[in-house]
């Protein structure tokens, strides 16, 4: 199996063990353009759950009542869980696709 494919797929699979570190390291260390592109896509996909935190938590501070904040947090938790699950599945699928290419 080609080393570039393994490194590219590890960038996607790193959502389980290295988060942001592996895609960033691969992007700056490896010179192959295809591997760098996969590392960039993996890094962006790892950022998506954290970006959703910003968009969902900030409005909680603006809400006036405690009941609205609690309800908002329950909705946020459900949406965050769904988005995180989708991102994990997407990374696994992309990692397998890169290996199968």
Please provide a written account of the structure.
The model has no long low-confidence stretch (mean pLDDT 87). α1 (3-13) runs antiparallel to α4 (66-100) and α2 packs antiparallel against α3 (33-62). The N and C termini lie close together (10 Å). The protein is mainly α. It is built from four helices and no strands. 19% of the residues are buried. 84% of the residues lie in helices and 0% in strands. It has helices at residues 3-13, 21-29, 33-62, 66-100. It has one domain.
Choose one word for the global shape: elongated
Provide the β-strand percentage band. Answer: under 5%
Query: Spans of 5+ residues with little confidence (pLDDT < 50)?
Result: none
Enumerate how many helices there are, as a single number.
4
Global mean pLDDT: 87
Task: Round the Cα radius of gyration to an integer and report it.
Answer: 17 Å
Number of strands: 0
What is the domain tally? 1
Distance between the termini: 10 Å
Q: What percent of the residues sit in helical stretches (DSSP H or I)?
A: over 70%
What is the N-to-C succession of helices and strands?
HHHH
Protein name: DUF4870 domain-containing protein
Subcellular location: Membrane
Organism: Litchfieldia luteola
Pfam family, one: MamF_MmsF
Break the fold down into its secondary structure elements and pairings.
Layout: H1 3-13, H2 21-29, H3 33-62, H4 66-100
Using brief descriptors, characterize the structure shown.
single chain, 101 residues, mainly alpha, 84% helix, elongated, transmembrane, MamF_MmsF, transmembrane helix, DUF4870 domain-containing protein
């Amino acid at each position: 199996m080609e080393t570039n494919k393994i490194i590219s797929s590890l960038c996607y699979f790193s959502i389980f063990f290295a988060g942001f570190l592996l895609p960033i390291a691969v992007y700056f260390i490896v010179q192959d353009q295809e591997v760098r592109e996969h590392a960039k896509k993996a890094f962006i996909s790892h950022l998506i759950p954290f970006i959703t935190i910003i968009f969902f938590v900030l409005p909680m501070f603006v809400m006036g009542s405690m009941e609205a904040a609690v309800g908002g947090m329950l909705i946020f938790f459900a949406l965050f869980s769904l988005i995180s699950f989708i991102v994990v599945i997407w990374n696994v699928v992309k990692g397998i696709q890169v290996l199968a290419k």
